[in-house]
Design goal:
The chain is α/β, with parallel strands linked by helices and 222 residues long. The longest helix is centred in the C-terminal third of the chain and has 22 residues. A 7-stranded mixed β-sheet has the order 3-2-1-4-5-7-6. It has 9 helices and 7 strands.
Length: 222
Amino acid sequence: MPSGVVAADVGTDHAYLPVWLVATGKCPRVIATDSSRGALAAAKRTVETYGLAGCVDLRLGDGLEVISPGETGAIVVAGMGGLTICSILSAAMGTVVLQRRLVLQPMSEPEEVRRWAAGAGLPVADEDLVAEGGRFYEVICLDPPGERDGSAGGTGDGLEYEIGAALLRKRHPLLAAYVELKISECEGVIRKMEEGVADRGDPRLNRWIERKRRLEEVLRCL
C-alpha cells in the first residue's frame, strides 16, 4: 500500500482492514463501503471500538459507486470472486485509472482478474500467496497507467494467468505447494471424466490432461 494515501476498502464487512490501515499509520483515512446495511452497522461498531470514527468514512453502496474519482489513491477489493471484482472495477474505470495502487484478493477465479488487468492495460506490480486453514489466498497488486513499466504482468498464456507471472518470476516459497494442489485437482477431474466419457479423444478431457502436464512442467522448474 503506498504510504500516506487515502484508501477505499470495497465490501468492508466488519471494517477490520480500514481500522488496521489507520491504526498502523499506513493510511491517514480510509473510505469503507459495503452494500449491506447490516455489515455497515458491524463496521461502525468496530470503528467506534477503536476510536477511529474520524478516520474511517463508512458509506453504503455497491462497488465503487459511492467513491468519486480522485477521492482515493488506493483501492482494496478483497474476499469476492474474481469475476465480481472485475465487474466492480469495470463499472468505475474513471476512478480506477486515478489510483496509485489496486490491491485485489479474489476468493476464486484469480486468472480472470489477471486477464482483465492485462486487457485494461493495468500492469501487475506484485503478487503474494498466503496459506491458512488448508487454503491458499492470492493477492494481486495492480499499478495504474501512469506508473507503467512496460510489463503487463502476463504473456497471454492461460496457465500464466492462472498461476501469476509475478509468483513465477520470484519463485514464491508457497508456489510449489500451490501448484501441487492444482495438479491434484486436475487428477480428480480427469479421473471423473475418464469414468464418464467413453471417447478418450474427447477434447474436454484432453484439455485437462494437457493442463496437468503443463502444471507438472511448472512444478519441475520450481
